[in-house]
Amino acid sequence: MKNIKNKTAYILFPILIILIFITINRNKVYRTGESLWHDIFLKNREKPRIVYNYANYLVRNNEMKKGKEVIKNLKDNDYRKYLILSMITYRQKEFEKAAYFAKKSLEYKSNYDGYIMLGEYFFRINRIEELGRVIEKLKDFHYEETRYKVLKAKYYLVKGKAKLALNSLKGAVGEEALFYEGLSYQKLGELEKAKKIYLKVKTIPTAMVNYALIIYTEGEKEKAIKILEKINDSQSRDLLKKIKR
């Protein structure tokens, strides 16, 4: 009986060690989003959607070089390859290239993300009529998520239609949506609402520049100066010069 127990233990012990090793390895994989995506990618290189999602994840986390390497697994006629290149070049502030790649993706397939990227480009270079046409194209997708809502708000604000901009932001989330909500209220003259929203925006310096401008016009010059000196970018320095004159 004792021998049977010893043999059983002898057999089970290596199995237990293997199971522990597998568990530890799996925990390492799940430790970060990047390692999880990498693990999925390694097992599914031939699946374009997986490749695109992994590259998208990398680019959104500022891993541009890795993103470029990953999309080498996509065929040259796959529209998703050019979407990633558009995202990378846009983040690198190469806006002409970003627009080129967005258009290239649209040549291969009419797609939501391609129009979003193209719309952002047209907004940046102030080609507002073309932006309007892009927004019309986006309506066909019947997919109203935050990027589309923010893009509409930008269009309406440039057109001087702050109420429509505000309405378009309903249900939108994130810092950029908050910023344009604050800007819409500012354009409408509802300054208290604008100030409250600007104070919630932490990653867009222009929000606090606008906040400083509002409180300056309300007579709080010294407070406005302190805020602008703390920001210390080109926009805040320009406003600071005007205030100190």
TrEMBL record:
InterPro entries: TPR-like_helical_dom_sf (IPR011990), TPR_rpt (IPR019734). The keyword Zinc does not apply. The chain crosses the membrane at residues 7-24. Keywords: Membrane, Transmembrane, Transmembrane helix. The keyword Transmembrane applies. This is Tetratricopeptide repeat protein.
